[in-house]
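ARCHIVE RECORD
Type: protein–small molecule complex
Small molecule: pyridoxal-5'-phosphate
Source of inputs: curated submission
Record status: active
Notes field left blank by submitter.
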Amino acid sequence: MRSELISVRDLPTDRATVFSSEHGDGNGLEDLFDADCFARYAALAVDRLADHLADQSIRGLALTDPALILAAATELTQGGTPDNPELHAQKFAEIIDLYARTGIQVYSPGYMGRQFSGPFPVTAVVDLVSAVLTQPASFYEAGQLPNVVERIMGGELNRFLGFPADQFAMVTTSGGSLANLTALLAARNRRYPEAWAKGLAGSGLRPAIAVSDDVHYSITRAAGILGIGEEHIVRLPVDNGRRIAAGEVRGALDAAAARGLDVFCLVASAGSTSVGAIDPFDALADIAAERGLWLHADGAHGASLLVSDRLRSRLGGLERVDSLTWDAHKTMFVPAACTMLFYRERTASLMAFQQEASYVFEKTADIYTAFDAAEKNFECTKRPMIMSLWVPWALYGSAPFAEKLELLCDLTEETHAILTHAPDFVPLHRPDTNILCFRYLPPEPLDDDALGRLQCEIRTRIRARGEFFISKVDLDGHAALRVVFMNHRITPEHIHLLLNEIRAVAHAIREEQPHHKELPQ
Ligand SMILES: *Cc1c(COP(=O)(O)O)cnc(C)c1O
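STRUCTURE (tokenized, with ligand):
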């Protein structure tokens, strides 16, 4: 029996005609590398994806029983390999449609839930170009243009960041988590110069890092990987905007020192994952300077605000950090992964990895190897990810990035105002970026636990209805609803629709379960 998930609109006749041309669509190796064959598959995919982009209906996610997707994908895998070009086209179209239909609908105004977005369409085409040309970017000889462009984009973005122009360095990494790990490794090696050769045990010290209570899990994971140990993470309290309470940092560091911990690095967020909060970098840079600490900014989510003249001042003091993680695949709207790791000092960028491997690293740099990235990044084969950021930058400059971010941040503030004025909702913080957390308040008062469980149930049901996709986050131990605006086509009308949907769902829950304390755990 054919899986109900596999279906496809009829192939357009002109396309079908193209696919039944004389040559190039058999299963022979030469057929598969045929240039016309490539052109036809690309045309088919572009045709389908253009329709996908054009669909502006409100839809979040069609959450599907994995058994159904497994059955459909198994059928596509084991259903035989057709030797007829039209059937190849048919199967390829079925795969694209299945892929598109089962994804979070990131181009829809109903999508408000996560930190990824539909990228600028041109950047997706650049990814296709990069995949065909295959120029891995750790070594200049393998990726000449990407390595040169990395220098150029480092300089372009540093105009907004403000590190010393003749001293800073930038390297791309496969994701913000890896950038955070790399920066902490550099910080560790600066403080414990013997650690690379002899391990941490040789120092006789108890290395520790200090982080915001809201820090991303990749930082605490990095501490585990680096041998710092999760128990040697000093948690810094946050204020009611969920930013590091700068006034309490010195006391927390003194207490850590009294416990025998050797704190070498302070990690703060430029846009925390949970609420988008921007930590007070100027105050933290003062403390880091005073105590000789490495200050790392995790700007995976929010560093992009730098490109907007209107939003940049929210990141005051960022130019004083030692290192900065900046994900272009989040708020620069390019395909994942595309992350940049900036160091204020070039010498610091060489501290993370201290290996010598004669087959790749030349002892003395020549004009070519001077452009190699490999000494600064963990990857050996690395996606030439900078290309998908550089191409739109070269075509349009910074303006579309700034414009989109400004629209998203304005929408978030407007949503905050809407929630403030609604008697049955409460926003939980003023937004620093494009993330906002809030709770729905039912007519009868509930204790914190029951209120949190109600938010979870609301989120689950909203997702199941398939129109809106929002997320959930725990703040101070209790669940809250969370929106992340990544789609500039969302308007206040959509926000009102979402709130009404939440009200309807909450009403249904109350009808079914008059005693909220009995909500499922
Ligand atoms: C998303 C995020 C990360 C992780 O980045 P990836 O690119 O997903 O690996 C780290 N820190 C913050 C603040 C984030 O929002």
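CURATOR ANNOTATION: The CA atoms of residues 343 and 349 lie 6 Å apart.
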